[in-house]
């Protein structure tokens, strides 16, 4: 068996969660990870070497965090037994419940369709979501779903060890933004994109987010400039940052703390190449590159775990796109 085949088999282990839960944490996501999930996961009696978990921050249908735990099915009851008292204690420490706002997005887990304001958390039934994975064909592709989950698991470990413990730092908002940009840079260090493809993908990701913000704000696509023009002004005031980011995009360096995650990002991209000749995966009218949508969904799942708001993610991609375009222009000038 080749090394590539062995890696592929490992990536598919424990593809679906053995346990899923939703915690209505009133937006205290970082505290939940640092004070509850991290010690639970460290001390979990059912944890095995290949087990992993990941999270999803979700604002619709009440501010909450989704938890997914992967491992041998035989250990599900033990994970449940360890997790329940930890979540009970966390919920008990929260202020009195506020009424949940009406949902504007589809429920990911069926139990979240009509959340009970009096319930602080509950176990749920996991299902691969076309909304999260990018469409029915992607949700039905068990290999992509497994690689997506493994990638999120690697990011969850990084957030738990490197980011969440700093949530009480007065500079945490800036720390989060910097870490998110560093993660995106690390991802592009392992993606085999030519410079034009880097610009094409960054444009695609930025524009996808822009359309989302426009729809959320009840703006037409003709009004997208109203969203991007203020960001262009910010770029003009950040020329030194743009130049520094351009150099880092070219450097291709992956920080050791992101190595496990970027290996998974690379695996997602390599798998997505099989979609290119399959019309079922022509899911996004805004691109002809069938790798872009699964890559977008995977990267967005990871920046969600970092805690990027859509506005912060949009700014990060707009800034990186400016850096990529600046570097392309600089190289053309050198050639000329």
Structural features, described:
This protein is α+β, with helices and mostly antiparallel strands and 336 residues long. 58% of the residues lie in helices and 7% in strands. The chain has 13 helices and 4 strands. The chain has helices at residues 3-11, 29-43, 76-92, 130-133, 136-140, 142-163, 172-190, 195-216, 224-236, 239-251, 259-272, 292-306, 310-335; strands at 19-23, 52-58, 64-70, 121-124. The protein has a 4-stranded antiparallel β-sheet with strand order 2-3-1-4. The N and C termini lie far apart (49 Å).
Task: Provide key terms for this protein.
globular; 7% strand; 13 helices; alpha+beta; disordered N terminus; 336 residues
Give the SSE map.
Blueprint: H1 3-11, E1 19-23, H2 29-43, E2 52-58, E3 64-70, H3 76-92, E4 121-124, H4 130-133, H5 136-140, H6 142-163, H7 172-190, H8 195-216, H9 224-236, H10 239-251, H11 259-272, H12 292-306, H13 310-335
Antiparallel strand pairs: 1-3, 1-4, 2-3
Helix pairs in contact: 2-3, 6-11, 6-12, 7-11, 8-13, 9-13, 10-13, 11-12
